Amino acid sequence: MYGKFGIGTSPLLLVWIFTAGIFILDAWIVEDNNISFTYLLVIILGLFFRERNDVVLLGVIATALTILAVFIRYQAGILAPLDQLLFSRVVSVTGIWTGASLVITILTMRQDETLQEEQFHALFRYATSGILVTNNRGEIVRVNPAAEKLFGYPAAELLGSRVEVLIPTRLARLHEQRRSEYRTNPQPRSMGTGLDLYAIRRDGTEFPVEVSLSPFRTEQGEFIMAFVVDNTVRKENEQRIVRQNQKLEQLAAALQSLNEGLEEKVRDRTQALEQAKNDLSSALKTERELGELKSRFVSMASHEFRTPLSTVLTSTSLIASYAERMDFEQVKKHSLRIKTAVNNLNTILTEFLSLGKLEEGKTEPNLRETSLPDIVSEVHSEIKGIFKPGQTLQHQHNGPNVALLDPALFKHVLLNLFSNAIKYSPENTEIMVRSSVRPGEIFLEVIDQGMGIPEADQKHLFSRFFRATNASNIQGTGLGLYIVKRYVELMNGEIGFQSEESKGSTFWVKIFQLNAPPANA
Is 92 or 295 the better-scoring residue by pLDDT? Predict the structure, then answer.
């Protein structure tokens, strides 16, 4: 053993013996100065060392020995001057330390690679999520302990099996199809992609899961690493939310009953009080409808609904208390809060459903002759309830009334553009809508006097989930304009805008008519 340098194995001992042999040849036997270059071979053999300090020590010893050999040969009677002999060894010493530097670099890379491999194995082994690695044939090649515990299989039983062994039989064929599609364009996919996924344990029990996929390539081929998380708790939470919605409906029914009793007692009150009661009844009816829609789509967007639903629940509870005390100003205030929350929920739900249909390719335009002024008027009537105090909307139309378009998609476009103009404009402002039907083209623009869009944000405005930096405190999902752009393109059109921060925005839509209706329509 060689102490702290760890030179204890036979190959390394031979390196030191070889070094001593070269020194003997250099000092007493071979007179050619080129023998000193064989020290470089010794340095290269330092690749057998485990520690970089060993290579440094070897370099120091080789340098010392090559110089010591010069003095020994000089003492033995070599006729050349000592300084000339020493100078002849400069190249050898340079080669020794160049080789030592190269060997140290290689050892460092080797140690880094070993450390990274150890870290990967530690993460793989001690990760709390189940991890499966499959090859391009869908065969499982690696399984971590968390996955063994999650599925109830020992690793030896899963290795070499198709990944469909962990999928319920009724879903195996669909999973194999999705796996083949994913393999044609593999990309990292994070948790929660909108898919309702289920897995099956060894004992045959099914359970919901979330799966994140990460493709990678090695010398052995292409692989996919899947991170699997048991989603049972989240599903139970969703069911709990459904039950809470049912309780909310019961509370709404109780409030409706209370409202009917109050109507008998305050029949002779003022018109303002009667209007407040009507608003309350309408808000409660809208809330019941919202609860039904929420129950159907809770699995897709439950987390987006929590804040508005909390507002509704708090306000309805307060309404009961204020109604008993005849504080109808507070009743009206919280009724408006309910209406605002319901509008937010409706927007979120509509945008998520629209996005889902678009992404799945299920949205197809149904073009037919439609009156442009009528559809603008219809949308105007629908959104009157969200106007801020003093806000108005004016419409000017030129040309024929009838145009070829999809009324449902175009109505969604108008709803989004109008509601954005309302939401981002201050009170007491006018929103101008101009439309025209020209030969081969429909044109519409919406002009507001709102906060405008920062110039740095404008190039991202039609991206999914994008919110302008000056609108972060205003309710929204960042999907509206993305969906509008897709709808306009489905109708063979285009959309654009001009905007200046603090001065307002103008959004325009052009739809190109392939078969325009007659000009006198």
Answer: 92
The angle formed by the CA atoms of residues 302, 304 and 308, to the nearest 5 degrees, is: 105
Contact 61, 19 (CB under 8 A): yes
User: 309-367 pLDDT, tens per residue?
Assistant: 656 666 676 676 666 677 667 766 657 666 665 665 665 566 556 556 666 666 788 88
- What is the distance between the alpha carbons of residues 375 and 373, in angstroms, rounded to a whole number? 6
Element (H, E) at 396: strand 392-398
Q: What is the C-alpha separation between 106 and 96, in angstroms, rounded?
A: 15
How far CA 94 is from CA of 61, 85, 88, 170, in Å, comes to 14, 15, 11, 71
DSSP calls for 71-94: HHHHHTT--S-HHHHHHHTHHHHH
Q: How many other CB atoms are found less than 10 A from the CB of residue 505?
A: 24
What is the length of the chain?
521
Of 301, 425, 407, give the one whose Cα is nearest residue 351: 301
Compute the distance between CA of residue 9 and CA of residue 177 in angstroms, rounded to an integer.
Answer: 55
Cα angle 315, 316, 322 (rounded to 5 degrees) comes to 85
* Region of residue 515 (phi > 0: left; psi between -120 and 50: alpha; otherwise: beta): beta
| The model's pTM | 0.39
